[in-house]
Design brief:
Helix content: 25-40%
Structural class: alpha+beta
Radius of gyration: 41 Å
Oligomer: single chain
Order of helices and strands: HEEEEHHHHEEEEHEEEEE
Number of helices: 6
Shape: elongated
């Protein structure tokens, strides 16, 4: 009888130990995903993307037809050059007037000396001074007119430059690049198709750096902080799991109701907080996979 009691106690202890929770919190793995869309409208002349392909940052993977934009940029460049050729050479155009002023000044000086010596009357001097003033005003008017013309042409050149820069910016957006380093998850277009601005072309994700989004209770919240090291487990079912080192990178500042698909340490809790734990992926973690965390002692 005593032997059977010992066996029963051992079974009960084993059952109790199996009921202990393996994780402090559970959730699913996610990655930083970016959907790349067309920034210009036109035919996809090339699009070298395949699902599962690993792309580097800013790697060019496609190009949208650029012919019309290139022609427009050249046209605006020619327009700017034409406007530049119309700008007046101010120094050359006022050179003759300056020479006349210099000669008139010499006449004024000569008559001043003659009047001083009594060899000329004052009216001759006044006439020479009047002629000098007329030429000086004429020079001022020329400089003002030429200055206004130059500023107007410079403004037209500036407008042409801005338009050309806009076209060049549009031309740059014809080239499709990978915005992050990552793996192509989905492809939505093929070379030869007509792309419109905003049309999704492909989706890429950084699966090297995965995040486990888990949910903790307010009681657990006081024991966790950003930067804290935790143990992360990827759960494959049938007691198969891999262990990773993780770092808490984000804790929600707002509580929410417990998602139905998530288990917490306190299943009776109505309000939980989301946390994100960064994990370096060794290739086994997949997006949407179930996982758990265990805080370090």
């Amino acid at each position: 009888m005593k032997k059977f009691w010992i066996i029963g106690a051992a079974v009960l202890l084993t059952a109790c130990s199996s009921d202990e929770k393996d994780y402090d919190a559970t959730g699913t793995f996610e990655a930083t995903e970016v959907t790349v869309s067309a920034e210009q409208t036109g035919r996809l002349m090339s699009f070298d993307v395949t699902e599962g392909q690993v792309l580097s940052l800013n790697q060019q993977v496609g190009v949208i037809d650029t012919v019309q934009l290139i022609l427009k940029a050249r046209q605006l460049g020619a327009t700017r050059e034409s406007i530049a050729n119309q700008r007046p050479d101010t120094q050359k155009q006022i050179a003759a007037t300056r020479q006349q002023i210099q000669k008139a000044q010499q006449e004024v000086n000569r008559f001043q000396q003659l009047v001083k010596d009594g060899a000329a009357n004052r009216k001759q001097l006044e006439d020479a001074q009047s002629q000098l003033q007329v030429l000086q005003r004429q020079l001022e008017a020329q400089q003002s007119s030429l200055g206004n013309s130059t500023r107007s042409l410079n403004s037209q050149m500036g407008a042409a430059d801005i338009q050309r820069q806009q076209v060049l910016d549009q031309l740059k957006k014809c080239y499709v690049y990978a915005p992050i380093e990552g793996t192509v998850l989905e492809k939505y277009a093929e070379a030869g198709e007509f792309a419109t601005m905003g049309k999704p072309l492909f989706k890429i994700a950084d699966i090297q750096n995965m995040y486990l989004r888990a949910y903790i209770t307010s009681r657990q919240l006081s024991k966790m902080k950003i930067g804290q090291k935790v143990k992360v487990f990827s759960d494959y079912g049938d007691d198969t799991r891999h262990e990773y080192d993780g770092t808490i990178t984000w804790i929600s500042s707002r509580s929410e109701f417990t998602p139905k698909s998530i288990l917490t340490d306190d299943e009776r809790a109505d309000q939980v907080y989301a946390v994100k734990i960064l994990v370096k992926n060794d290739g086994y973690i997949k997006i949407g996979m179930y996982g758990g965390i265990k805080t370090l002692p």
